[in-house]
Task: inverse folding
């Protein structure tokens, strides 16, 4: 039986999970693969800390050069994260004609086009299932199972930290700072949670999904990104009155050849499948012409879930090696010659329904003045909730509106005008509403 050598760079939480699976499930993997996956080397700066998995002697090293370019290693796993030195390591491995498995969404979102070109030039594979939605096999699904479909849209809850925070805020009425602190104490959020709560992590993943769906080059810079830190408990209460829930959504739509790519808090009908995804779980909702709508749900992070996706990629590449058939599947689902720069719709041109929460002084003229400005900007109001303050006309009270579908630039122009009024006590809050995902 053929031996296929594996080298691992990065022995943190996910790396330990990968080593655990490769060592403990070695026979099961071999029975399915028809070859032996042999863990040859694990490179990390720290090889003394106990990771809870027993590594045979001679495998651990602090020298990455014992992995990259090692003739006994056919596949290199990169699990150190970030841009550098991960980019350099992956590029060197590919140039050494070693196939690569990575879970590094940030790396692919920024340098994926170049790295996939390097893999193609050297006749090796670069697989990346664990880079999006952890253990959910969405990359494999889009690269293989949906190849007979035109994909119309891909929407997802792609960050477990944000989903946990929004779930708890909605269920318990807690504010953002309090809920974030709890998430950090439970290990769901990093000490510096910026990439998560400001939507950047989600946007990295959306950049990859967009390319897979629409045959575009990966272009993270085209994604409009908003985070969740400005959402207030009162917004969840009003969302419930409208029959909606609030989620941080990644949205990619192809409408008439123009692509929308955006990450932002979104109100979705409580009956929608994505509205039922709570706590730290992830989900990806794909709308395709032949299959129709489908949902892929599971653990989007964590030691063993992510390690499972990494090992799945290892086995796929090992099968290619075993059958002398590397480069069997195009890196981004489409043939390289078919992948072009995307034709992206500017955020100002998108159309959406909107939830708008004004903080206004309690005066009789407030509603008519706001409605008049919205009307002047071609924004039609679907419903209004107005709460009296009961403290005289100096009190600030919320006025909440749900609009019909309107153009983003029209809304922004209207709000710029409204927020200058003397009846407005604080900047207006806006959350987009999506009913036709």
Result:
């Amino acid at each position: 039986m053929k031996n296929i050598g594996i080298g691992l760079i990065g022995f943190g939480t996910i790396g330990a999970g990968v080593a655990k699976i490769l060592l403990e499930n070695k026979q099961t993997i071999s029975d399915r693969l028809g070859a032996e996956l042999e863990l040859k080397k694990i490179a990390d700066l720290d090889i003394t800390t106990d990771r809870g998995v027993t590594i045979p002697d001679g495998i651990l090293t602090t020298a990455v050069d014992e992995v990259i370019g090692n003739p006994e290693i056919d596949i290199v796993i990169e699990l150190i994260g970030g841009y550098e030195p991960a980019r350099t390591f992956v590029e060197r491995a590919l140039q050494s004609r070693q196939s690569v498995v990575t879970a590094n969404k940030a790396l692919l979102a920024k340098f994926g086009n170049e790295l996939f070109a390097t893999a193609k030039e050297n006749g090796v594979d670069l697989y990346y299932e664990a880079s999006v939605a952890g253990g959910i096999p969405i990359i494999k699904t889009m690269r293989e199972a949906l190849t007979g479909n035109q994909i119309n849209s891909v929407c997802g809850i792609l960050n477990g930290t944000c989903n946990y925070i929004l779930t708890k805020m909605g269920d318990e009425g807690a504010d953002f700072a309090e809920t974030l602190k709890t998430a950090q104490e439970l290990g769901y959020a990093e000490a510096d949670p910026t990439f998560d709560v400001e939507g950047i992590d989600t946007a990295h993943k959306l950049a990859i999904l967009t390319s897979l769906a629409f045959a575009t080059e990966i272009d993270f810079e085209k994604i409009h990104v908003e985070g969740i830190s400005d959402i207030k408990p009162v917004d969840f209460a009003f969302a419930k009155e409208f029959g909606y829930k609030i989620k941080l959504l990644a949205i990619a739509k192809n409408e008439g050849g123009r692509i929308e790519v955006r990450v932002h808090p979104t109100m979705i009908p409580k009956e929608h499948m994505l509205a039922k995804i709570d706590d730290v779980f992830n989900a990806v909702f794909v709308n395709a012409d032949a299959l129709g709508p489908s949902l892929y749900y599971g653990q989007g992070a964590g030691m063993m879930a992510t390690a499972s996706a990494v090992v799945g990629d290892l086995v796929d590449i090992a099968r290619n090696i075993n059958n002398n058939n590397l480069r069997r599947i195009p890196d981004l689902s489409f043939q390289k010659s078919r992948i072009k720069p995307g034709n992206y719709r500017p955020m100002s041109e998108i159309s959406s329904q909107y939830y708008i929460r004004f903080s206004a002084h309690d005066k009789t003229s407030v509603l008519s003045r706001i409605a008049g400005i919205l009307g002047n900007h071609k924004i039609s109001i679907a419903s209004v909730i107005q709460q009296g303050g009961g403290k005289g006309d100096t009190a600030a009270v919320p006025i909440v509106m749900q609009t019909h579908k309107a153009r983003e630039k029209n809304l922004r122009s209207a709000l710029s005008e409204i927020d200058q009024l003397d009846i407005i006590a604080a900047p207006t809050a806006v959350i987009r509403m999506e009913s036709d995902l």
